[in-house]
Predict the structure.
Amino acid sequence: MFKKKDLILIGVMLILCVISYVAIQFFVKKDGSRVLVKVDGMVKYEHQLNQDTELTVQGYQGGENHIVIHDGKVSMTDADCPDKLCVNMGKISKTGETIVCLPHRVVVEITGAGDGVDSVVQ
Amino acid sequence: MKKEKKNKTYTIAVCGVLTALAMIFGYIESLIPIPVPIPGMKLGIANIAILTVLYAVGPWEALIINMIRITLTSMMFGNFNSFLFSMAGGILSMLVMILLRKMNQFSMTGVSVAGGVAHNIGQIGAAMVIMGTSAIIYYLPVLLITGVVAGIVIGIVGAMVTKRVKLGTKLEN
């Protein structure tokens, strides 16, 4: 059922997985300062992470996502998408962390203070 | 790989049955809740049928059946978004599996693992383009490991199905 080369392939995949995990933990994740909300690739809202607020976002082709910023953490508290994965993602606060709602094409993204310009230009 | 002339009626019948099987797997999959909230994460059990087509019929039939499956399943159980993500993942994983199958170096398990990982990478790539954010790549490690685990299971089951599909014929590789 397994050939030797299968096991090598599986091993390589697992090593790649560990490397990408470590790289993301050490180089991407830092304490974030700003919150970007994108719908279908366009930045719709931008907010400071340290100011508490609540917003409701209109998703692509209808649908609503309710986002709460509280105590420097962002969470999706409610959404009318079918799978509710975004609501179950919990709270995020580090750069590079996201809450994604694929059905509504909504991305909540945390960025640092320095890379704000880049993310807008993107 | 021996080149044998295949019975056309047999090929059409097997393709039809396996397309139906792939769609039913797609439906069953949509009913299974995934405990981890990661977008784009799937078991990929429909790949059992596609893998069987790849081994019992041929690579191009497998590619076409996979595209038909994705189109039909998205029309019935999904939306245009899920169609785009699945199509990107499906085509990439199919091309990788065809390539590995032609190389003749791996068993079905290896081919399935590579296909599962390629599917997740394709989906993440499409999501990064469509949603206009590179931060989704953050999910890559998790999707890689689930692709490997699901790929192993699906490769083993796929090998069993292929054996039985081939039993009814004189086709052997």
Notes: Chain A has two domains: 1-30, 31-121. Chain A has three helices and eight strands. The interface with chain B takes residues 1-3, 5-6, 9-10, 13-14, 16-18, 20-21, 24, 28, 38, 40-42, 60, 85-86, 88-90, 96-98, 100-103, 105, 107, 109, 122 of chain A (CB under 8 Å). The radius of gyration of chain A is 17 Å.
